[in-house]
Amino acid sequence: MNNYTQKVIEETKNKNPNEKEFLQAVEEVLKSITPAVKQHTNFEKSALLERLVEPERIIMFRVPWVDDNGKTQVNKGYRVQFNGALGPYKGGLRFHPSVNLSIIKFLGFEQIFKNALTGLPIGGGKGGSDFDPKGKSDAEIMRFCQSFMSELQRHIGHDLDVPAGDIGVGGREIGYLFGQYRKIKNQYEAGVLTGKGLDYWGSLARKEATGYGLVYYMREMLGANGHTFKDKVVTISGSGNVAIYACEKAQQYGAKVVAMSDSNGCIYDEEGINLDIIKDLKEVKRARIKEYLSFKPSAKYFENEEGKEPKVWSIKTDIALPCATQNDINMTSAKKLFENGCMAIGEGANMPTTNEAIEYLIKNGVLLAPAKAANAGGVATSALEMSQNSMRLRWTFDEVNAKLNDIMVNIFKACKDAADKYNLGINYPAGANIAAFELVSSAMESQGII
Ligand code: NDP
Ligand code: 2IT
Q1: Is any atom of ligand 1 closer than 6 Å to the C-beta of 202?
Q2: CA-to-CA distance for 284 and 131, rounded, in angstroms?
Q3: Does ligand 1 have an atom closer than 6 angstroms to the CB of 321?
C-alpha cells in the first residue's frame, strides 16, 4: 500500500471509531485500489480519497408509528447520500433490527462503486431503519412505511435520490412508500422509487434482476476460467429476493441447487431444491425455511447455533452463492468451503465475505465474484426502470433481461480488464474496485473540490 492510501485508512478509522462494517468496506476498497491511486499524484492534493470516504450528506430521523395494540413505537430512520458524482443518489432501503449508521454507511459506500460499474447515470446512496418487519401485520407495515416516507419525502426525488428495496423491503413496502410519497407531493413522480409493482410502472424483470444478474456474472467468470454451471452443485445462503432468482437462473443453466437458508438454519435437498415450494413459503406465506420439510419430508434441516457459523457453508458444494447478509462467510466457513472442494463463490449479498476470507480464498485459487460487480444487476435494472419512467414507456421482459445480460457481461469484462492491467490474476474483487474507482475518481476530479 502507498502512504497516501494507508494514511486515509488510518484517518477514517480515527474519525469513525465505532463503525466496524463501514471501516471494513473502506479498508477493502482502499487497499486494493492502491496501484491505481499511485498513477495519480494529484489525488492527494485534491484530497480525493478523504472526500470519497466522507458522505456528501447523512440524514437521520425519528419514525414513530402505532402498532395494532394502539401502542406507539419509535424507530430510527436513515438515508446516506454518499456520492452524487455520477448521477442522482441511488440505492436500497434496508429494514432490519441490526441496522445502524455503520451498516448504512458501508452499504452506501459500496453502492458508489457498484453503481459506477453499471455504466448508468447513478450515484451512491443507501437508507433504512432498525424496524423489524418480521411478525408485523400488513397494517403495521403500512403505517410504518407511511411514517418513514413522511420524513424521507423531503430528501428524495427522481433527479435527486431514488431509493429501492434491500433486506426487509420488497414490493409490498415499496408500494406503501410510493403511495405516501405521491399523496404528500401531490404528483405522479414514478421515477422516485424503483422496484415498484408492475401495475404502477415498475420494470419487468426488476424482481428477478439481482439474482439473474449474479448468475450472468458468474457464467462469464466461470467461462473465462474454462467452467460452466452445467451439473455443478450449488449452495445458496438466504431465501429472499436475491437468493430465489439466483437459484432459478442457476437451475435453468443446469446446476443442481441443494441448499438454501434463512437466519434460523438451512435446508438440504440432495434431489435439488424445489423452487416452487420456496417461492410459496417466502413470497406468499412469509414462513420459515424449515417448513420446506412439510412439503418435502425427504429433505433435511440444519438449525444454526448461536454464535456459530451458518450451517449452509458446511455442505459440500462446487459453487457457493451467499445471498443473505454481510460477513456471512468468515475464515472458518471459507476454509470449510475450500476443503470441501468449492471452486467458485458469487456474492449476491453485499460484503458477505470477511476481508481475511477474501484474501484466503483468492490465494487458494477459488474464483470470487465480488458483490459490487456481481450483484449490480439489481440496481442496473432499477436504473432501467428510471429510464422507462422518464420515457413514460415500458420495455418487455425480454428487452430488459437482454439489457441486464449485456450489462453483466460488460461488468465482468471491466473487472477482468482491470485485473489483467495490474497483473492481479483472478483477483476480481480488486479488479472491480479499480475499474469502479477509475470512473468515480475521474468524475469527481472533473467536478472540482466539492
Ligand atoms: P430479503 O429480505 O428478500 O431476504 C434476505 C434473506 O437473507 C432472508 O432469507 C433472510 O433470512 C436472510 N438474512 C437477512 N439477514 C440475515 C442475518 N442477519 N443473518 C442471517 N440471514 C439473514 O433481502 P434481499 O434478498 O433483497 O437481500 C439479500 C442480500 O442481497 C442483502 O445483502 C442485500 O443487501 C443484497 N442485495 C439486494 C439487492 C436487491 O435488489 N434486493 C441488490 C443487491 C444486493 P430471515 O428471513 O431469517 O431474516
Ligand atoms: O444493494 C443494492 O444494490 C440494492 N439493494 C438495490 C438498489 C437499487 O436501487 O435497486
Answers
A1: no
A2: 21
A3: no
Structural domains in the chain, CATH included, are 1-54 (no CATH), 57-189 (3.40.50.10860), 207-374 (3.40.50.720)
Answer yes or no: is the C-beta of 90 below 6 A from any ligand 2 atom.
yes
Is the CB–ligand 1 distance for residue 350 below 6 Å? yes
126 belongs to the catalytic site = yes
Angstrom distance (rounded) from CA 366 to CA 355: 14
CA angle 52, 328, 101 (to 5 degrees): 40
pLDDT band at residue 47, thresholds of 50, 70 and 90?
Answer: very high
Selecting among 126, 232, 282, 403, the annotated active-site residue is 126
Encoded amino acid at 214, one letter: L
Amino acid 399: pLDDT: 98
9: its cell numbers: 485508512
pLDDT digits (tens, 9 = 90+) for 233-274: 999 999 999 999 999 999 999 999 999 999 999 999 999 999
Please give the Cα distance from 151 to 141 (Å, whole number). Answer: 16
Query: Using an 8 Å Cβ cutoff, are 210 and 192 in contact?
Result: no
pLDDT one-digit tens code per residue, 383-415 = 999 999 999 999 999 999 999 999 999 999 999
167: CA distance to ligand 1 center in Å?
4
What pLDDT score was predicted for residue 2? 77
**H/E stretch holding 257:** strand 256-261
What is the whole-number distance in angstroms between the Cα of residue 293 and the centre of ligand 2? 32
pLDDT, tens digit (0-9, with 9 covering 90-100), for 284-305 = 999 999 999 999 999 999 999 9
Whole-number Å distance, alpha carbon 193 to ligand 2 midpoint, is: 11
